[in-house]
């Protein structure tokens, strides 16, 4: 297993380099201009000076190498300095800067990351906790009323887009019943019981929308995997030996059924960090999804490049984690 993991990590390096080059090239070829939103009264020579200050007067390959140095060397060194207090060099190294705010892109991401993790992360966790028992019971009681109801809800939750579900919940619970706020207040600080209750209330709608979507997707995998294992020979053998039905279901069937489900869950973890773009826009959650939308609308190419590449890194990383977990859970798989 260690050899396989090390080999995959080494293979991930050229993979990520190729991905970074493709992302950088595609966004560089996109028809955008950082001076496009400036007033028309600005002289052309001033526009050329602005482009030169952003480094756009350099050839494509030089700008790409600068970005690699800033992202893979300068930014990690800056993070290490902040965490440890050590000093590497003079500390005035060039970082990846946003065209719109002239602030370091990593700092902008760090500011938005907690909101995304709170909302999207909790929604994913609740979705898993809801999906597994529903999928297990639906498979064990196949074609029962519970199974049919659970299948119907999961199909609706997975098929209906989150922007429709979000708007529907806002209309019902915010406008009509006025139970929960429709806008997520990012500036709210939890200091006492009342502020904690306010924080919980404003998280219910966005977390509920995303949890329904995640649970609907995972429930289908759990149910299908459980049905596939319930009819295997080892289940009939365990029952013939007099093993209690609860032990057969939860120890034998569920453990083997969770092998492909864990893979699906692990591959879905990067979506926590990438944010829920549509849901964050609906509820005004100041997270990474909204940050990406703002960057795209403002043609902030360094911010879009960095965010997109970080999402790609997370996908490659959690693909590796999913493969490792698959080998740990299934003793029949040997990578070495």
Index terms:
MetI-like_sf; Peptide/nickel transport system permease protein; 74% helix; mainly alpha; transmembrane helix; cell membrane; membrane
Structure commentary:
- The protein is an all-alpha fold and 336 residues long.
- The chain folds into 2 domains: 16-84, no CATH class; 112-329, MetI-like fold (Orthogonal Bundle), CATH 1.10.3720.
- It has helices spanning 2-29, 44-53, 60-84, 105-140, 145-159, 162-176, 193-230, 233-240, 245-268, 270-274, 277-283, 288-297, 301-329.
- α1 (2-29) runs antiparallel to α13 (301-329).
- The longest helix has 38 residues, at 193-230.
- It is globular, with a radius of gyration of 25 Å.
- The N and C termini lie close together (6 Å).
Topology record:
Elements: H1 2-29, H2 44-53, H3 60-84, H4 105-140, H5 145-159, H6 162-176, H7 193-230, H8 233-240, H9 245-268, H10 270-274, H11 277-283, H12 288-297, H13 301-329
Helix pairs in contact: 1-13, 4-5, 4-7, 5-7, 6-7, 6-11, 7-9, 8-9, 9-13, 11-12, 12-13
- Overall form: globular
Mean pLDDT over all positions: 80
Total of helices: 13
Low-confidence stretches: none
- Count of the domains: 2
Q: What fraction, in percent, of the residue positions are helical?
A: over 70%
Task: State the total count of DSSP E strands.
Answer: 0
User: What class, by secondary structure content?
Assistant: mainly alpha
CATH class of the largest domain: Mainly Alpha
**How far apart are the first and last residues' alpha carbons, in Å?**
6 Å
Task: Report the β-strand fraction as a percent range.
Answer: under 5%
Brief description of this entry?
Belongs to the binding-protein-dependent transport system permease family. By secondary structure, the chain is mostly helical.
